[in-house]
Amino acid sequence: MSSGAPGCLQCLLAGGEDEATSRIFQHYEVSLANDGASLAELGRGAMGITYRAVDLNLGVPVALKVISARYSQQHEARKRFREEARVAARLRHPNVASVFHFGETPEGHCFYAMELVEGGTLEDRVRREGSLGAEVVLEIGAQVARALMAAEKHVLIHRDLKPSNLMLVPNEQSSAEDFLVKVIDFGLARIVGEHDAPSSGFSGTPGFASPEQTAADARTIDARSDIYSLGATLWFALCGHAPAADEALPRVLETISGKAPEPLVRLHRRMLAPQPDDRPQSARHLLEEIERCRAELVAARRRPRRFAAMAILGLFMAAGLFAIVRPFWSAPPEKSIAVLPFENRSKDSRDTYLAVGVQDAVLSDLARIADLKVISRRSVMPYASATRASVKNISRELGVANVLEGSVQRSGGRVRINVQLIDVVHDRELWSEDYDRDAKDVFGLESEIARRIADELQARISPSENSLLTENPTANLQAYARYAEALTLDFWCNPENWRADFKRKEELLRGAIRLDPTFLQAYCALARLYFNWHNQNHFFGGSSPASLQSWEEAVDTAMRLRPDLGEPHLERARYYLFRSEFDRAQKEIEIARRLLPNDSEAIFTGARIERRLNHWNEALQDAVAANALNPRDNLIAVWTAETFRLTRRYEEGLQFMKRMQERLPALNDALRDEEVSIRLAQGKLDAAQKLLAEFPPEAEFEHRFQLALYRRAYDEAARLVAAAHRRDLGPLSSGKSPETFYDAVVDESRGDGRKARSIYQSLKDALLVPTSQDIVDRADYYQLLSGYEAELGEKVEAVRDATEATRLVPVARDPFRGAEYAEGLAEVYASVGDRGHALDQLSLLARIPGTTSYGDLLYSDSWDSLRGDPRFDKLIASLKPKS
Predict the structure, then answer these.
(1) CATH of the domain at 381
(2) CA 491, CA 493: separation in Å to the nearest integer?
(3) Quick check: is 160 catalytic?
(4) What is the model's pLDDT at position 586?
């Protein structure tokens, strides 16, 4: 609060002999200043003076605002003072100083008590330290935007945002950059649409008030006015003084352009726009723009490091350091934890979902704390009903030093929760507790448990993290029960009934949303469900009832509800990733990762985006980090190994898989499949054959077929095709005849070209032109079509359509898929006898990550037309793996 001269009650009350010497206002006592005579004044406002005081009942300090003497006997003024208190008391938010009591003395002197915020104002800090850095300014802006979001829920505007009305509360356990912002003095706040009496005059502070506040008719001001004032306040933090009232916007921006990066200048241009329509239209929109600005700054800082990282990559490989994967193999950090599934001890089996929900909420709260390593839910769920004896194995497999066990028992309207925190490294119980609470209080209890665990592990909780821990996911237990039941359905693990599981999960989540339309986690889970559905369709085929529109609506609703949280940004990043909008996806994932430091899905999504942006080393680093938080996730482990293969870092990939298999034998089958791919890429056919012998005979059709072709064992290839089930032959089947692409390959290899061409013609005729405008669907279509055309001798058409696939998805736009289409074009050139262009394509592919490998060029009959050409021999030699 702004400082003022020491006050006294005589001046304040101006009358009433007894009251003039009293410091008592009901059960509050105004404190004395350090001189022992004057009163401890904190600040002066339009309606009154605020003092430090003590609540005599509780013995705690408070801030007490007392109406000014000149207004104390005016009925309208007292009414307005009471309304000021009422408006401020409606706000309950970590970034707003709370008002909790209003009273009047017998003489009619009004006052209200509020939270005493210890710390200095933003004005004090800037006067003391000078201009602040961009990161600090953006953090202040984000926290104030959250406070304004809370005000918007009550249709309130502050009308006097300025540096002296922002308190910075330091975190004593951290650096000066870690602080909590408290917005104070909602004394000028009013409900949007209301207006002051004509005599009330200008409201606000010159230099920080919006242009519309100074207009003759200020009745039209709304939340965008506060956004302007916040922009001026952040400008003050950057420059050390407020913009002059008559200073034009271009001049203002020119002043900060040398002090702030371009994204921050653009943000100020929006916030300080003279016309309200040109500013962010709400606090939610403002917060979203602030987070995007932060993401741009983070991305800008990371770019220079990419070149250095790639420069030393060869040194890491040559020295055999395996630097990327080493952190995963090291001893678990002390501040690491796995929250095991909670046991349901209720008689009603339906309460299992309550136990699931409690565990998920505790895990989610802990995962928000950046100072902790928290294992993801997917990796802890297999350890239900773990015994104390098995905890050490769990610790070793998940790479954590601590484990939390718990149980939930519901009886009527009461819930009993028991938790035990075990230090596995030293084989001791750190803490245990029994809680018995009303069922409606269960969400607050989860946050309490998370805080206690953080205290026991000596993990620092930042003010922003602490504010998020105070929030409940929903107030509706029925909605949460449906959400928790949906969490138990994982159709990736149930391929036989995945469509039914999808439908049931969608029904549960939509049911939860109907019960609570503001249930953010339910919207995010629904968006994640659609993401997984579209990926599942890619593997299993079939049309999706979950349209992209439904997916987009779930993401947009989540963003509209809470743009200040990481989960909506994660879901939007995944949506953009699926749509191949990689730059937009990266901006969203940068925000999500900052807000969700322990979320393996956010880190892994970041890895997938990095790979599509041609940042392969960063993709591997992120994938290994995600694997450390979610070691039992097959997809992350296999994707990581695949990325080692695509970058031709075969030995590192093999080392990664070996370590994973030693710690988690359950991953053996999934990782051995990728190991076969690496051995084939290396050209080590015997090693691949040995690995395939470990699988059941009906498994691994694709790899067995590829190996048979590499060895020119066409009879073996024909036997494999005859024995395979149709569903194992994948989407390359024509669907109109028993013959498949694989039959055609075998027939052609055996010299029966006529029969092979007949099958290729059937496949071409059955190929459906994509109805969507999705460029990947269209590129896939043209690639398949060109392959059939090449086999049918339609050379011009084959080259044209293969080229169209590379035009739709070029390597420069999508290095991952683009390389696949470029290799398809090279195969078409080779098939039609255009050796020069085929070698040109292969020369490009040999220099970039992708599936073009030493083993494929050495053994595949796709390249037989190139053999004997010195350029081709040189290409093969350049790709030979180094031992």
Answers:
(1) 3.40.50.10070
(2) 5
(3) yes
(4) 92
